[in-house]
Amino acid sequence: LRRCLISVDRSLIEKSIPEVKRVLQTKDTFRNVTILSTLENLKSIKPVDVCCVTSHLLTFYRDRVFKDHQETSLEVMRQISSIANSFLYMQKTLEQCQVHNQCQCSQEATNATRTILDNYDQLEASSAALKSLGELDIFLTWIDENHQETSTA
Amino acid sequence: AVPCVSGGLPKPTNITFLSINMKNVLHWNPPEGLRGVEVTYTVQYFIYGQKQWLGASECRSISRTYCDLSAETSDYEHQYYAKVKAIWETKCSEWAETRRFYPFLETQVGPPKVALTAGEKSISIVLTAPKKWQRHPNDDTVSMQQIYSSLKYNVFLYNTKSRRMWSQCIANSTLELSWLEPNTLYCVHVESFVPGPPRLTLPSQKQCISTLEDQMSALKV
Amino acid sequence: LTGGVAVLPAPQNLTVLSINMKHLLMWNPVAQPREPVLYSVEYQGEYESLYMSHIWIPSSRCSPTNSLECDVTDDITATVPYNFRVRALLGSQTSAWSTLERPFNRNSTVLMAPRMEVTEHGLHLVVKLEDPGPQFEFLVVYWRREPGATEHVKVVKSRDTPVHIETMEPGAMYCVKAQAWVKAIGRHSTFSQTQCVEMQGEPL
Question: Average pLDDT of B119-135?
């Protein structure tokens, strides 16, 4: 069963994420809380679950994070729009995989996503959204690492 | 430590991590307006997602303006904050803090070691990947290639006779340049390159080597 | 006129001209004899139109502008449909919005064959490629000019310095052509003109 691999647009990694991260991380004052639970959670995802977790997390950002975040800076709003639309494109690519049955969801994958949603719900929505946007570098690094032909993560 | 009155001094400025091959050193500038005053500094760090600030054991009441936090931040897939405050007699500054620091995405990857061997019309280039920072010299060596599987090298070759240059992007560590001009001085420099977020590149020192004299013309002499 | 008040007409004929991932929004001028008219451009990606339809984002370069065109390259950063709207501004008057007839997707951009310069450095095939932007890579195809020759392909990125393609055999003629490749939209251009160079030295 060929693995489902998506690629992340270079301008996202090189421009939008660094810009959003630089601005929003300084506003995130809850340092002892993380949404994506950095590594313990994501690192344990098996290759076969990568597609499902990616799809779930793209949906999480689409339906929760981008909506819960209120942005006042026009430049940051543009970068978030760029990320949101790039995520939409990545989701369309994943949908092709789902059609070809390459995006199975195991219980572990569902649990991993559940943990992230629980983390999100522990904070007030706008704080949680701000933190999730500040953690986009973790998410994109995880996608980059796990959506490569050779990745055996 | 003797408690001090916080806010009695201006904060240190320009606090930032300088990271090369995962050697993560915190740097800052002294507080303004305190020239000639014997100020000391104390550093703490925070692992994002953990519970509290931790003291940097090697950087308590120090007078230098840098602190090597490589050991404290050695898990490069976690993210960190650091902060420093200035102390003078019974007064001290507020804490000055860094942005969130993500070694995996922000460390600069140093240049490889470059070994050149010249032949009559060829130059053999052997690259050794830069090493990750080690806690102790006898610890097992970890190459930056092991951390970044997509690490590549941009090799630049300059012919000093024709004054022309070309570049090549390679993923492995050896490059055999054949059919070069004999008896010609070539200069080489190499950059490590990891696709992804923009990182500062540190090119290797320029090294020059001459191809050997053409044996045929040597015999004719 | 509306209720006796002069109404500023909305700009018409919005179109997008897109070449090599550079996207230019254009429109017809609003005729106003006396004063110069300004225009304001806003955009909506597919995400906004599907999930936040009330959100329109001012273009990064043309809010406002006195030109009849707007470089929206930095606004279109994903391979999804984008809506654009423009209105005219004259003093305190603003026209209605005029919206692009059909949303624009950057995967319809026209990709030009790359400009390429092939040189031989002794026995080394070296190419210098124009740099249309960070999204571009190039497929360089080269072969030895002889019957039944095999084509070789190398993917390179444009760089300030010429790029080494291959070490060749002395005295042989080699030909090269290249096409631009944009991974973000999964498309490539037509091939450039073929260029051939002869390697120095006596044939083996």
Answer: 94
Mean pLDDT of B170-192: 93
Pairing assessment for the beta strands B5-9 and B91-93 based on DSSP bridges: parallel
Assess whether pLDDT exceeds 70 at residue C34.
yes
Write down the ipTM of this complex: 0.88
What's at C182, amino acid-wise?
V
The per-residue pLDDT for range B32-63, each reduced to its tens digit, is 988 788 899 999 999 999 999 999 999 999 99
Region of poorest pLDDT, from B41-45, B128-132, C117-121 = C117-121
Virtual torsion, Cα B50, B54, B57, B63, nearest 10 deg: 130
Quick one: which of B137, B117, B139 has its CA closest to B126?
Answer: B117
Q: How far is C111 from chain B (nearest CA, A)?
A: 24
Q: Do C52 and A82 touch (CB under 8 A)?
A: no
Residue B99 near residue B158 (C-beta atoms within 8 A) = no
Rg (CA), chain C: 24
Which residues in chain C have their CB less than 8 angstroms from residue B180's CB? 122
Q: Is the pLDDT of residue B151 over 90?
A: yes
What pTM, to 2 d.p., does this model score? 0.90
Helices A74-99 & A50-60, crossing angle to 10 degrees?
140
A139-146 LR contacts (CB < 8 Å, sep 24+): A139/A36, A139/A57, A139/A61, A140/A8, A140/A12, A140/A13, A140/A17, A141/B104, A141/B105, A141/B196, A142/A36, A142/A42, A143/A6, A143/A8, A143/A54, A144/A8, A144/A13, A144/B196, A146/A45, A146/A47, A146/A50, A146/A54
Shortest distance between the Cα of C55 and any Cα of chain A, in A, equals 10
Residues C117 and C194 sit within 8 Å (Cβ to Cβ): no
